[in-house]
Fold:
Amino acid sequence: MNSQSAPSSKYARLAVGLASLWILTGAGFKLLAGTPNDLPVPVLQFFADVDPGVKLHLAVAIELAVVALGFLAPAFGWFWVSGCLAVFVAVLLKLLSMSAEECGCFGTAIKVHPGVMLGVDSALLLAIAATRPWKSLRGAKGAPLPLVAVVVVLAIAAPWLVIDEGGGSRRPGSGSTSTATELPGGAQTTGGPTVAPGFGATQGDAPKPSDAGATAPSEPAAAVELPRYVVLSSLKQKWVGKHVRDTELGAWMDVDLYPPDAEWILFRYTCDHCREHFLKLDSEFATNPKTYVLVHIPDDKDETHKVVETLPPHVEPIVELPRGTEWVGVTPWTLELEGGVVKRAYLNEGEEEDSAKPADEGK
Structure:
């Protein structure tokens, strides 16, 4: 029995160890360079009301804790490693059904097709099952329990210590890096006056005088160190009832340079829904004219994957948020402002809407 169980235990440890190392590789990339934008769509859709930044932290924490158990206590860690792989397989199958091209398993560092990852994860899961660790590792010695507990705690804490999350921490007047850039790939507006940019605008060629005769500031603000990512979500962050300067958006652009009574639209040039929404607004402008402020969320695929060609008429230049960080949030977001206060916030023609009442109305 002993002579047969020793090799069996060895192979089980090897299978669990290799699977743990594989999980550690993915967790490490997400820990050091990942953002919520890299999380698979099924993960983002699961408990959709949970902040995507929290989901990223939790995903990395769980993976690191599983890895610690797999390496230090394989006698029962194999169960958690297998469970983690099983979840990966389920998510990858869902991604394949959605025709996804990337799985996000390694964050922004490496793009891998879900089919490739499914093959690797399935093979590791089958290898663990083949070695029957529930039998071969029964009673096997691992690291001392206090050490295991300490390492697991450190693993869980690591994402909150390493991942740099931003939002609401800096206003442009005190150092935003928003800059003036050209519209990508020939995007154009079909109407409306073009006036001077305020802070971070991307279009315009003449200063816009204020009531006092002053012009919009043109000197660039001092550069600041940007966080790894910033979450912008008027639904989850409850912007309705707040002045726009008190929202996360207001932390990254000088909102006082733009009309306080207007519809502000957050968009991406790579967003199909933005394209359809803008075409509709443009076609309706003659019969339903409105004041629009367009806020561009930059993307590293603006040039290669641009789909927005037509912009609705707008009286202000396009505002581009600072490049150098990942902006997390679904587009197009529309904010209806009155006196600078967000009265309504909705996604894609009201598909999702922030119906939260301002604090003073709820009393």
